[in-house]
Amino acid sequence: MEVEVKLRLPGADAHRRVASLLSPHRLRTDRQENLFFDGAAGELSSRRAVLRLRVLQRRRPLRRLAQGQGPSSSTRQPRRGDEEELDPARGRECVADPGKMGSMGSRVLRRCREEFGVGEFVGLGGFGNVRDVYEWKGLTLEVDETKYEFGTCYEIECESSDPEAVKKVIEEFLKENGVEYKYSEASKFAIFRSGKLPE
């Protein structure tokens, strides 16, 4: 099973330092808008699930619906859920009127209705994220700058089937280059819902 290793950087200076060190290995930059939805009666959140619409801004926008479930914190986070691409026009309809989501023929939305009992969808808001992707030492590193209404967080993420080894490699890289870090104790969604940056 792939597990996501997440380390939090203390601020913009550390983020710039990491980006500069990794710049020869940069593959691309993704600009993401993440919008979240729940059932009107909290059917998803009450079962620690989340419905996200992610808009990826590359050459052309890609709208992707994802429903996920799993722990809200830890340095190593299992990735579980379901994901599908969504027609951009339908994505705009969902954002403008979440009530229309109930009648869409989406596999993810059908799962929300059937497994979680969602009758009516409501919007929760969201946040933006700038993700620089690097191929480094056989790893795909994602260095994020996540912008909430209440502040900005910086983080390094990497998916791996050997999370302990990956965590050690990333920690050694940061220590060798004098970059401070902490373990991520909350997901981006959990930070968004809390309304405050982690300490």
Detail the topology: elements first, then pairings:
Blueprint: E1 3-9, H1 12-22, E2 26-39, E3 49-57, E4 62-69, E5 76-78, E6 81-86, H2 88-96, H3 107-116, E7 121-136, E8 139-148, E9 151-160, H4 163-176, E10 182-183, H5 188-194
Antiparallel strand pairs: 1-5, 1-9, 1-10, 2-3, 2-7, 3-4, 4-6, 7-8, 8-9
Region (Disordered): 63-98
Protein name: CYTH domain-containing protein
Pfam families: CYTH
Task: Record keyword descriptors for this entry.
ten-stranded antiparallel β-sheet, 26% helix, CYTH-like_dom_sf, pyrophosphatase activity, 199 residues, alpha+beta
Structural commentary:
With 199 residues, the protein is of the alpha+beta class. The protein is built from 5 helices and 10 strands, in the order βαβββββααβββαβα. It has helices at residues 12-22, 88-96, 107-116, 163-176, 188-194, and strands at 3-9, 26-39, 49-57, 62-69, 76-78, 81-86, 121-136, 139-148, 151-160, 182-183. Strands 1, 2, 3, 4, 5, 6, 7, 8, 9 and 10 form a 10-stranded antiparallel sheet that branches. Strand 7 and strand 8 (139-148) form a beta hairpin. It starts with a strand and ends in a 5-residue tail after the last helix. The relative contact order is 0.24. The model is unreliable at 69-79 (pLDDT under 50). Residues 1-196 form the CYTH domain. One of its GO terms (molecular function) is pyrophosphatase activity. Residues 79-95 have a biased composition (Basic and acidic residues).
